[in-house]
């Protein structure tokens, strides 16, 4: 099985596809009235569906963001700014990763996360002419107040917990699940050692930002997940749809 897409309802799938292909280096194909965009490989795609519009990111909603992992965030930022895209300054966020954020033209949040921590990046990690050549949709991020329910759902589908990351300074922790047999290098899933390893995985992880006991609202333009190999549609622990790929 494979986490194969995140479904987002947008105002103009064709127009937004141009941003993801021309700016972020993805490829695209039509799928009925929808546009499917993504990188070549085993990571998830974005399935852009008509009927949305007026999306505003809200920290009180279930859906948060997609994360794109890249070998050199600084090169990626220079590329984006040269195309007129507003993007935050990259920084090392605690002992999580070297990252930055932007929004697509409809307001959906995109995180760029480097394979290596600040100061650990190898020389010539990426091609300056094509900084997204080795990019991957590394994370689809949801918020939850009940990680036990999310954990039970993910494990029931055959996903494995790969990393747990403490962000106590901001009142939450992060939990990463994937359809994989991979074993992290350190069996202690809280270990910082596992994080750069995680950012280099070629597949997409389902990331939960867990604020214990918090209540979140549905995000109307988030239409759920697609899982290749799933035999029938179902609902996740929150009630959002998960459909076969």
From TrEMBL:
Pfam families per UniProt: Glyoxalase
CDD domains to which the protein is assigned, alphabetical: VOC
GO molecular function: lyase activity
Ranges of residues in domain VOC: 2-115
Keyword Lyase belongs to the record: yes
Keywords: Lyase
The protein's name in its UniProt record: Lactoylglutathione lyase
Source species: Ruegeria denitrificans
């Amino acid at each position: 099985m494979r986490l194969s897409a995140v479904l987002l309802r947008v105002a103009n799938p064709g127009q937004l596809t141009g941003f993801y292909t021309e700016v972020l280096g993805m490829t695209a194909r039509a799928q009925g009235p929808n546009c499917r965009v993504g990188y070549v490989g085993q990571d998830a795609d974005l399935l852009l569906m008509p009927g949305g519009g007026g999306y505003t990111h809200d920290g009180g909603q279930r859906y948060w963001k997609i994360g794109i992992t890249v070998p050199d965030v600084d090169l990626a930022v220079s590329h984006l700014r040269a195309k007129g895209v507003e993007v935050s300054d990259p920084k090392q966020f605690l002992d999580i990763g070297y990252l930055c954020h932007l929004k697509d033209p409809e307001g959906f949040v995109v995180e760029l996360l480097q394979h290596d921590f600040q100061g650990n990046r190898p020389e010539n990690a990426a091609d300056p002419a094509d900084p997204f050549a080795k990019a991957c949709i590394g994370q689809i991020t949801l918020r939850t107040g009940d990680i036990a329910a999310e954990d039970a759902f993910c494990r029931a589908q055959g996903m494995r917990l790969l990393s747990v990351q403490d962000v106590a300074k901001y009142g939450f922790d992060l939990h990463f699940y994937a359809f994989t047999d991979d074993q992290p290098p350190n069996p202690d899933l809280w270990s910082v050692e596992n994080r750069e390893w995680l950012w280099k995985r070629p597949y997409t992880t389902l990331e939960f930002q867990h604020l214990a006991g918090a209540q979140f609202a549905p995000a109307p333009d988030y239409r759920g997940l697609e899982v290749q190999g799933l035999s029938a549609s179902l609902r996740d622990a929150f009630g959002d749809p998960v459909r076969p790929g």
